[in-house]
User: Which sequence fits this backbone?
């Protein structure tokens, strides 16, 4: 009798248990009559094992040397200290469960989730005693799946553990034989867990953070441009997407020479890195709502770079973007999609992926770019570093932002691009897997990794950037003119009136929905009051049913509230449905109270945004200046005719007089109207004027080239004719005064450059001519004072630099003029003193010598201790008088006397603690040290 026949009854018992846990899987197992790919065998330790024979090779699911020992080593070597839920791919015979039993018992919150997609493995497992124990363990789950696209199933799984810190591990046999499936599943679990957690937090907060960014950004939408207007306008032009990995430092100098051969994208930290080396990318990306996005923008030098953005970008970060703002429609948010449709700018969803780099990839594809090349995408701790150098910390962010500080994470070893071992993280492995899948999903695009280090992506070729430049980036383009021209052709068909009408429509529906919710709540309370048996037939009154139907017809419900109700229902389902009628009614009341609160919060945020916009924001619809400005000075000569180029500019000390055989290159609109006109010499270098026209024939951009280099004055114009920018170039570098204007003709940004580096004053204005930011530079580095002003003309930021290093003091004020930050820099970046206040003047946080100063907490506790001490003394006196005042006739009960004496002793202990606290504080002040421990309670 073989093992299977011998344990047939055990199998049936376990199958019955599985029927209650997962009926569908049990049903599938019963449908399959024969499993013949996997055999039972034993390890050298006489433990049960599984083997599979294929192509003349026998593979073992667990180590032949010892299955439990292998699982034990996995637990000892891989599990992070704070892990609460382990997702383990590969059931085998579940020795991992034995290895984790003690770990599970130590904390009832902990959970083991074993993932398996092979039914024969599950079938084999049911022949073991361990199967019955695991299936009935409340801290263990077997999750079966067929493919990774069962989104609802994975969503529900992750929802169960969204409040736990998770970790993904894999059966060693699956790492060896099913590496791709392991990485794919790791990506699915880790990415979905973060996404589900984010969605849950967002919905439980009523999407307050999202809405606080949405409405301020939306109200300024008419001044933006529409990304869809740029789609397929850069067909077969290469794109270089920058990460911020340490390897970027190797390629930065070469990258600076490729600005006329590929579109360069940078977002987040990579923008700051390339800026620090004097490179201004063609496009920036802003999508993150977190404060760090604001910090990255305030510290970079791309004052006029166009930015792609979405409405969840934080309001503060949005305000810092001074270049052309390009809105990217196609959000996965139901509410955002509704608004885009109402405004006539809807687009199919565009996948943001993991981060700003993956979002850049989608945008580059939609622009028509091919190939797409990555640099600085290490996804590894290259030389124990996470980022390349160049990510500075603004003086007002000291103690808050630490870009080079290693975040707590569990590292794993892998083989990198160069064949050497590297250290990486599971979420980076998942991110690399995204690029692998992306390249497979889009075979029409050549995707290359020119990172020259780090993890790499499966199925994506690794080239050096030098090889890419020599073999692929061989053609030059006037990308500056094309970008500026195509942006002007991408006018957004939305007016301020359109926005206000939409917001009023939303507000009306929100208020109506609040009334409906409150009516339903009132009706449900009636059921609690009139709770006779006759009233317990239905959880809703007739009126409540009617008003719920009316609620569901409201646009506020359909496009906003429905998602919150679904999230709430899922949460209620996970905690179990109450059985008592009264409890069910109370649950319904709680649900509609939650929905009413969500709606009320939405109205409040909407109204505050409208008030701020109307009373404090400058107009988004200014008078349009259509007059062509004269950009040339007396004595300038910019002329090209009959293969003869003359370019003379005394301001820039330029004097070119060249005769050459020119080749004209043109591009046309579908209407056959001229769009682009450029000239090349016999070496395929741009030479002479390069112009971009609107379909109506208006000049939108003009640059002049000599031997492939920009020279002289370059100009760009708004779609309706007014001057947008006047840039000055010398030897392909920005040089001299740079001028950027609003549509109404008032100055927007004024800068000074010297040979490609900022040098002098940077002044930024609003469209009413008021100065809102001013900085000073010397040789590309901030040098001197930096100030910012708000819409009330109050100074809100002031700090100082010396050769790029923050020095002296930095201040930040609230919009009402209250000092909320003061930083004194002793030695940047680690030695500083800082104080943070709220608008009421209450000290929130303090730093001394770069470390948090906890003495403020001691001061507060000391005050509380003194007050408590006085009260305790009075209580003690009362207890003494009570005890001494008792007579033989009025003797206190012995138990009561004992309790009073215990209370008195406790009071004395508290008084001693008060004195001890005072002595510790005095000692710390004498020694000028910062206490490291604070009593939690007095």
Assistant:
């Amino acid at each position: 009798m073989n093992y299977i026949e011998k344990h047939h009854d055990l199998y049936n018992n376990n199958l019955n248990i599985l029927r209650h846990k997962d009926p569908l899987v049990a049903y599938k197992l019963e449908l399959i009559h024969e499993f013949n790919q996997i055999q039972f065998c034993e390890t050298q330790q006489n433990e049960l094992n599984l083997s599979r024979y294929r192509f003349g090779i026998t593979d073992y699911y667990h180590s032949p040397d010892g299955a439990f020992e292998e699982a034990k080593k996995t637990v000892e070597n891989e599990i992070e200290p704070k892990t609460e839920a382990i997702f383990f791919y590969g059931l085998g015979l579940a020795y991992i469960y034995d290895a984790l039993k003690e770990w599970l018992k130590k904390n009832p919150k902990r959970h083991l989730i074993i993932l398996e997609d092979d039914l024969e493995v599950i079938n084999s497992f049911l022949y073991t005693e361990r199967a019955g124990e695991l299936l009935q363990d409340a801290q263990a789950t077997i999750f079966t799946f067929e493919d990774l696209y069962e989104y609802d199933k994975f969503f529900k799984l992750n929802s169960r553990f969204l409040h736990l810190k998770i970790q993904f591990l894999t059966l060693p046999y699956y790492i060896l034989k099913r590496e791709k499936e392991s990485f794919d599943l790791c990506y699915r679990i880790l990415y979905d867990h973060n996404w589900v957690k984010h969605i849950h937090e967002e919905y439980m907060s009523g999407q307050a953070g999202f809405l606080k960014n949405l409405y301020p950004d939306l109200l300024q939408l008419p001044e933006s441009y529409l990304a869809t207007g740029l789609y397929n306008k850069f067909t077969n032009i290469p794109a270089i997407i920058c990460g911020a990995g340490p390897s970027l430092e190797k390629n930065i100098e070469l990258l600076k020479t490729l600005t006329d051969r590929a579109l360069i994208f940078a977002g987040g930290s990579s923008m700051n890195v390339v800026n620090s080396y004097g490179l201004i990318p063609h496009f920036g990306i802003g999508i993150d709502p977190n404060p760090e996005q604001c910090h990255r923008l305030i510290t970079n030098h791309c004052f006029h770079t166009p930015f792609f953005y979405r409405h969840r970008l934080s309001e503060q970060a949005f305000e810092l973007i001074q270049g052309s703002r390009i809105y990217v429609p196609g959000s996965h948010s139901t509410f955002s999609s509704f608004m885009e449709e109402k405004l006539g700018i809807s687009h199919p969803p565009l996948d943001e992926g993991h981060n700003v780099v993956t979002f850049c990839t989608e945008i580059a594809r939609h622009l028509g770019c091919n190939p797409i090349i990555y640099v600085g995408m290490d996804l590894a701790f290259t030389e124990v570093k996470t980022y390349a150098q160049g990510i500075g910390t603004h003086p007002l962010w000291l103690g808050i932002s630490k870009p080079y500080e290693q975040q707590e994470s569990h590292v794993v070893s892998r083989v990198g691009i160069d064949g050497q071992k590297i250290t990486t993280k599971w979420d980076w492995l998942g991110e690399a897997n995204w690029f692998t899948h992306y390249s497979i999903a889009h075979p029409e695009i050549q995707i290359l990794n020119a990172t020259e280090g780090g993890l790499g992506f499966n199925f994506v070729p690794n080239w050096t950037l030098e090889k890419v430049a020599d073999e692929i980036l061989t053609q030059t383009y006037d990308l500056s003119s094309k970008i500026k021209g195509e942006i002007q052709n991408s006018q957004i068909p939305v007016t301020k009136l359109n926005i206000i009408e939409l917001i009023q429509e939303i507000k009306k529906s929100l208020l109506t929905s609040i009334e409906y919710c409150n009516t339903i709540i009132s009706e449900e309370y009636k059921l609690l009051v009139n709770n006779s048996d006759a009233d317990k037939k239905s959880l809703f009154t007739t009126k409540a049913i009617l008003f719920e139907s009316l609620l569901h017809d409201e646009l506020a419900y359909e496009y906003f509230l429905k998602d919150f109700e679904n999230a709430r229902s899922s949460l209620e389902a996970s905690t179990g449905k109450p059985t008592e009628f009264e409890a069910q009614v109370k649950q319904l009341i709680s649900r509609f109270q939650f929905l009413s609160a969500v709606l009320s919060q939405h109205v409040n945020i909407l109204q505050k945004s409208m008030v701020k916009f109307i009373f404090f924001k400058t107009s988004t619809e200014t008078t349009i200046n259509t007059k062509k400005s004269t950009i040339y000075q007396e004595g300038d000569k910019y002329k090209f005719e009959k293969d003869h180029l003359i370019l003379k500019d005394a301001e820039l000390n330029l004097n070119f007089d060249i005769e050459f055989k020119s080749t004209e290159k043109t591009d046309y609109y579908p209407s056959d109207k001229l769009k682009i006109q450029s000239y090349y010499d016999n070496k395929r270098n741009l030479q002479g004027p390069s112009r971009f026209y609107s379909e109506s024939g208006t000049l939108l951009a003009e640059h002049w080239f000599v031997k492939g280099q920009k020279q002289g004055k370059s100009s760009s114009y708004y779609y309706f004719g007014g001057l947008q920018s006047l840039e000055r170039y010398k030897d392909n570098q920005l040089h001299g005064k740079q001028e950027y204007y609003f549509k109404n003709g008032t100055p927007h940004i004024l800068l000074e450059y010297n040979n490609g580096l900022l040098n002098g004053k940077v002044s930024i204005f609003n469209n009413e001519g008021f100065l809102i930011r001013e900085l000073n530079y010397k040789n590309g580095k901030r040098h001197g004072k930096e100030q910012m002003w708000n819409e009330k003309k109050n100074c809100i930021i002031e700090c100082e630099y010396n050769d790029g290093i923050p020095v002296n003091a930095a201040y930040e004020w609230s919009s009402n003029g209250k000092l909320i930050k003061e930083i004194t820099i002793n030695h940047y970046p680690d030695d500083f003193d800082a104080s943070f206040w709220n608008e009421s003047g209450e000290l929130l946080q303090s730093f001394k010598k770069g470390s948090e100063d906890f003495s403020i907490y001691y001061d507060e506790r000391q005050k509380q201790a003194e007050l408590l001490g006085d009260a305790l003394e009075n209580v003690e006196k009362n207890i003494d008088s009570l005890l001494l005042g008792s007579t033989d006739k009025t003797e206190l009960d012995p138990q009561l006397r004992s309790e009073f004496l215990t209370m008195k002793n406790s009071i004395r202990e508290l008084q001693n603690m008060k004195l001890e606290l005072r002595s510790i504080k005095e000692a710390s002040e004498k020694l000028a040290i910062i206490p490291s421990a604070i009593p939690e309670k007095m």
